[in-house]
Amino acid sequence: MNNVLVISTSLRAKSNSDILTERLIAGAKDAGHTVEHISLKGKEIRFCVGCLSCQKTQKCVLRDDAVEIAEKVKSADTLVFSTPIYYYEMSGQMKTLLDRMNPLYSSDYKFRKVYMLSVATEDEVYVPEKAVSGLQGWIDCFEKAELGGSLFCGGISNPGEANDRTEELNEAYEFGRALE
To answer: Is the pLDDT of residue 106 over 90?
Structure first.
């Protein structure tokens, strides 16, 4: 079984994406995976300054929470990003974190499969496409990694509403069970 790192990028307390992420984690644990969960709530993650010194040193010159998260990403077998969809895209804090993973490009990272769970008020099938495409662009920079899959739960808008969405809760659980 795999060492799975789940990164929740919603900053809202008791968010719908967090509710569904907890079900995903339960499914992954029931499938026998070891799961570590990191929430970006309360984390300091600064913008990449584009100096590229990390390409030589595999270390970022900035000192904030992204450095520790990058180390955990590097050693995980499987990554799962959970994000609310804002303006048809991943959350800004998720994109900022992905940018800060630059030191990993030239490192000996372990992860091979990357997954995304996304949640939005809108329910149309096209809603998560740009978020998934953005994550795919990041994955494409890692030759040994691939997008393992994505789960979109749409039509969920009110705080805590996901608690009452049995179908989506079950889908998130099964998505977690199926992680590789």
So the answer is: no
Q: Are 32 and 128 in contact (CB under 8 A)?
A: no
* DSSP, res 119: E
User: 146: closest CA among 52, 46, 79, 73?
Assistant: 79
Which residue type occupies 99? D
Cα angle 15, 21, 24 (rounded to 5 degrees) comes to 155
Output the pTM of the full model. 0.96
Number of domains the chain contains: 1
Instruction: For 49-85, give the secondary structure using H, E and C.
Output: CCCCCHHHHCCCCCCCHHHHHHHHHHHCCEEEEEEEC
Looking up residue 51, the CATH number of its domain turns out to be 3.40.50.360
Domain span including residue 75: 3-177
Write phi, then psi, for 114 (nearest 5 degrees).
-130, 135
Q: What does the angle CA 84 – CA 48 – CA 54 come to, to the nearest 5 degrees?
A: 125
